[in-house]
Amino acid sequence: MPNLLNDHSREKLINLINYFVKNTKNCGKTKLFKLLYYADFRHFKEMGRPITGLKYYTWEKGPVPKELFFEMKQPKDDFNQTFAFTKTEDDILKIMPRKTFDSRHFTKREMRIIEDVAFIFKNAKAYEMVKCTHLPNDPWDATLKNKGKDKEIDYTLAFDNSSESISIEEYKRKLSEIDEIKGILS
Question: Is the full-model pTM beyond 0.85?
């Protein structure tokens, strides 16, 4: 659910990739997808909206933002200007930033979450992150069990009873407010 008045989702995505590549080790495509997933779902849990607006799907190695997966095979101009993509000898996609990270598109909360996710998984290998995303009853696991492979993971599965999580009722109220704003702006 993008911000209606100031949607910088593309800039956020590019800068978030840049941040994770620069601030974690061994950040290839698989690890990057898991870092984005954790940042998006954690922000959704707290605010009722993801940072990037990506949709994640139940693939074998965990949640994958399918649209980004395919874009990395044929990057758009803004990606090619910001990143160099090369394959290593063991066929792992290496992502090298060509520009510096720009935090101006992120809120303080988003930056806190981004920094926390990078810190937690700084030294993690891709296979370790895949294991983390396969934990029982987490959103990927719940979606795989209930819907099957290659299905979209519902962000509302991030909600829980923790003090950081908004309630489903609060989320519905936020959706109603957005609909009201859309009506006013139309």
Answer: yes
